[in-house]
């Protein structure tokens, strides 16, 4: 059974004319997720590119992550588990 994440913040995307064209949902990062992000940044820099490092540092700084970050965090978790078997 999947645990539903509670939406922490909503952010809108706008086009050039100022019309709303999209929406981003942000979720609050709990202690376990922040700990995992910290582990990734300190121990696993060999397979993190600049884009991933920027995302992880933003999560640590703001203590929230977007719906787009969830998929990449899942991939990084899978890589971390495979590397540490």
Lateral strand order in the biggest sheet = 1-2-3
Major beta sheet summary: 3 strands, antiparallel
Pattern of helices and strands:
EEHHEH
Helical fraction equals 40-55%
Based on CA atoms alone, the radius of gyration comes out at: 15 Å
* Broad shape: elongated
User: Low-confidence stretches at least 5 residues in length (pLDDT < 50)?
Assistant: none
Main structural class: alpha+beta
Distance between the termini: 25 Å
What does this structure look like?
This protein is an alpha+beta fold. It has a domain at 27-83. Helix content is 51%, strand content 24%. The protein is built from three helices and three strands. It has helices at residues 31-43, 50-62, 67-83; strands at 7-14, 20-28, 64-66. The protein has a three-stranded antiparallel sheet. Strand 1 (7-14) and strand 2 (20-28) form a beta hairpin. Helix 1 packs antiparallel against helix 2 (50-62). The radius of gyration is 15 Å and the shape is elongated. The chain starts with 6 loop residues before the first strand and ends with a helix.
